[in-house]
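Example 387.
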Amino acid sequence: MEQLIQQIKKEFQHRFGDSYKLIKSPGRVNLIGEHTDYNDGFVLPAAIDKGIVLAINPNNTNTCRFYAVDKKESFETEISGNLKKSDQGWPNYLLGVVDQLRKHGFEVDGFDCVFGGNVPIGAGMSSSAALECGVLFGLAELNGWDIPPVEMAKIAQKAENEFVGVQCGIMDQFASLNGKEGYALKLDCRSLDYEYFPFNRDDIQIVLCDTQVRRELASSEYNMRREQCEQGVEILQQWNPEIESLRDVELTLLFQHEQDMDPTIFKRCKYVVEENKRVIQACNDLHQGAMDSFGQRMYQSHAGLRHEYEVSCEELDVLVNIARNLEGVFGARMMGGGFGGCTINVVQEDHVDSFTNQIKEKYEKQMDKEIKVYRTKVSSGTHLISS
Ligand code: GLA
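Predicted structure in complex with alpha-D-galactopyranose:
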């Protein structure tokens, strides 16, 4: 991280001068609670020690100038009238935030921003949310805007929904902004009430295995899953008009109406209703230090994502199956939107080396390709490093 910070500072000084604020904005892991956030449900993410570093400063013009260190690409636009989406892709995460801030009545003037990260892009560790939250936090710092963290998360999520065009839930942005070192964050995505659960045991580590599979399909499939959940809710509302989302649905009601819905819609709904329950139970496990039971719920979550929600892929399934048979592993599952990206593995500290070696070796043998393995620490949310 120190190296990245120095790199960002140097690049900003070279391009835009010596005055700037420096911000770190983390990626996130999600221990359990996948595809529940946009169903008003529960999630259990944590901010991690990998993320994005940004340097940001006003430039007293009407122009935004951005530089992405990892891509070695720059972008420039005037902030007047309606902002236009960029074909370059990445500028949209920054522009989306500017667009949302303006829609919320904040006057955004021209600014310069240089950023780079050590979160792999598209790996399901929320590099995009980290960037959105970093820019938002930075602009609030520059302008002295006092935006409560929960409100910030909503603005960053809307930036992605409305400008980037992915109908994501609020988990990633919320975790990136509100994470706390040593704690996982249980979030009620309906009320946005949250509670921290200690996740700082020295004897346990979170290890991510990156398939390096990135599917273009992911965002259209994601939006389709959202629609399918909404269709399920519409059907169930005929019997219980008080149901607003899958969060309100009991399994018994769902089974009573299995014949009333398309089998695919039924499967999607069943997974979400069960996953919501698992998050609550997994939090109790954490509270009691019952890591074996916690790990079993991770495997159940994966099975649901694979067979019922159908957002996994062969690479992820192979990794979870290998992990299941390795010593010192409490649990493993695919993480994030799906169709590629990472698995999250909760592993006993003294087995992490052998886990890493064996999973790499066995995967390579079976799939004839490589994975990347990252060890992560549960870390603090978006913050100022220096001004
Ligand atoms: C992506 C979205 C989140 C969430 C997860 C699935 O990461 O950005 O809002 O829906 O997928 O749990």
